[in-house]
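Example record for the data management plan.
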Amino acid sequence: MTSPMTPTSIELRRIHLDLVTPFRTSFGSQSSREILLVGVTTADGSTGWGECVALSEPVYSPEYVEGVIDVIERFMAPVLFGASDLRAANVIEHLERFKGHEMAKAALEMAVLDAELRSGGATLHQRLGASRTRVPSGVSVGIFSTVDELLAAVQGYVDEGYARIKLKIEPGWDLEPVRLVRELIGPDMGLQVDANTAYTRADIEHLRRLDDFDLLLIEQPLDTDDLLGHRALADAIDTPVCLDESIESFTQAVDAVDLGAAEIINIKPGRVGGYLTAVRIHDMCRSRGIPVWCGGMLETGIGRAANCALASLDGFTLPGDISASTRFYARDIVLEPIAIVDSHVAVPSSPGLGYDLDVDFVDSITTSVQRLTR
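Corresponding structural encoding:
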């Protein structure tokens, strides 16, 4: 067991990064990201960083950057400062009195975990018990104005060597784009779709037509809370139904599997409260024969490094959304950004989460800093 840590300060740093191209989904379009970085410094001089995946507005989830800053500053930071036995393994336990706010909790756990690992000279994939040194890389492709633009983008990702293509879909942008992409990439390359809750139970017969394209899965087609609808869809179509936004906790993951609403689960650590909860979900799914994969939230190199370590666990049998850093950002905030080699990305082997910050660049894109102390 690791020794307790004494946090002396927590830094809430906002940065701004432009995307290389706009990324459109069924809930909106993004051309830039406001990202909250959470730094935790301990009494022994170790500093760890976490990345909060909340967006600027509550359009993907109820959490948003300004709200995360508020709940950490007013409620969560004082609890961690007052903890006499703080370890990465009990961050969530200390914060469980606060309902929800899983993305805020995950960012704090991530920062404490990074500091703890750096202090002990250990890596995240060692801490999680993973053995693989590289993982297959998939890419998420947004919604375009025209099919020609979509096909050109997909061809570019195929040329870059991605192992799997994921297409964002919505009503009016589904059957034809999927058909044309399947024709473009051929029958052997992995293809899946992600609806981000854009459909309803009334669309089940329409979604059944996606069975023609030999998809790996259809991700989160219905509303977040519609587990029975997802079960009905799973019973009606051959394409496996994968849940994403519906899975915000270990309990929700168990319930979804028990109900037959989730044949596959996309595990996003920031959405479920942290990497240690993500591992619990992975272990449960593996014991029940439910495939899992690691989703992305347009993370910088901090989150990508941690996601690589998580995805190196044996139960992650499908390629995740761990694309090269250049997929979204012209310049990342870490010194050695994630890159694709032979359709895979290497699991970072440096102490901590596996990255080193590009401090000068981070300073240049910082829009605000709040430092909280004991």
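Summary line stored alongside the record: The first helix runs from residue 65 to 82.
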